[in-house]
């Protein structure tokens, strides 16, 4: 394990030229640099956040849902059947006509009865509106709090107003308590999302979201150990700036406040467009690609981090292209395509879990009922 750790944390890969881990391990008195051991504190904090979420959803979000008259839907449960349950869990949740006919003969059931069983069984796994409301209210609360903390912290930071400060004297940049709490809290939150996936109702995008959370945890962890905290804090703040608006729009949808939902989603869309497609490439990528090259020069992990940021930007552009196509079709037809594959595609984001994306065509809001997109 020691040999594997030494190979993985090769300083020739992670650090600029003529810098070693030993240089960062023994700073001057009163000076603190990020260390890999600091990341372990995120795990107990993640468990604490997970416990707070359970308390919040049960004793705060739940009563709010009751006040708004959002009740648990009583869906009809499928009749217990070992044969069909085995097919459902290990083969397919939506059998085709050939499977239906074979199961019909095997059980001596009518084909429509088999279809009905699978429909009821699929509905059992769908979270209720009340469950989704409580989850969105928790996410809204966390995203809003962490965004307020981040923007207040960064407002007093030099590197928010001059991004070249992200690279001066790098990697010998002091770790402040505010930056430490910001980074570790974000990391702990995504660890808690990974924990909760195994206790929440399993959804179709379970694997996708698990990979997403794992990638996010990895990027935050590597940027912390590599002491790219300054530019990393800017990236996190940009992505947090629109997430809470999305969640409050979903809350309005679940409560059936249609006009509020539409208005909030329009605001979310404009902020998403401005942060992801304007600020991110012209502010963040500009400093990570050009200013850092000028001040510290490239090194192996520099190429890795910038490649990941460029991939993220390409995905932002790709998502906008697909959404523009769907929005255009919605305008022409006067309605949204509600085919589940389309809505599931829109719901996944590499940057932050549960992200939805902007409609670049503002005129579509007159033709498209927004609540159909906030599933």
Describe this structure in words.
The protein is mostly helical. It has two domains: 33-67 and 128-335, no CATH class; 82-125, Homeodomain-like (Arc Repressor Mutant, subunit A, Orthogonal Bundle), CATH 1.10.10. Helices cover 68% and strands 0% of the residues. It is built from 15 helices and no strands. It has helices at 2-8, 11-14, 21-25, 42-67, 82-90, 97-107, 111-124, 129-155, 158-161, 177-197, 206-225, 229-254, 258-295, 300-333, 340-347. It is elongated and about 75 Å long. It starts with a helix and ends in a 28-residue tail after the last helix. The model is unreliable at 334-375 (pLDDT under 50). Keywords: DNA-binding, Endoplasmic reticulum, Homeobox, Lipid biosynthesis, Lipid metabolism, Membrane, Nucleus, Transferase, Transmembrane, Transmembrane helix. This is Ceramide synthase 5-like.
Number of discrete domains: 2
Number of strands: 0
Give the SSE string. Answer: HHHHHHHHHHHHHHH
Strand percent estimate: under 5%
Count of alpha/pi helices: 15
**Biggest sheet overview:** none
Through-space gap between termini: 45 Å
The Rg value, from CA coordinates, equals 24 Å
Look at the helices and sheets and give the structural class. mainly alpha
- Basic shape: elongated
Helix content range: 55-70%
Output mean pLDDT: 79
Q: Low-confidence segments, ≥5 residues, pLDDT <50? A: 334-375
Topology (elements, then pairings):
Elements: H1 2-8, H2 11-14, H3 21-25, H4 42-67, H5 82-90, H6 97-107, H7 111-124, H8 129-155, H9 158-161, H10 177-197, H11 206-225, H12 229-254, H13 258-295, H14 300-333, H15 340-347
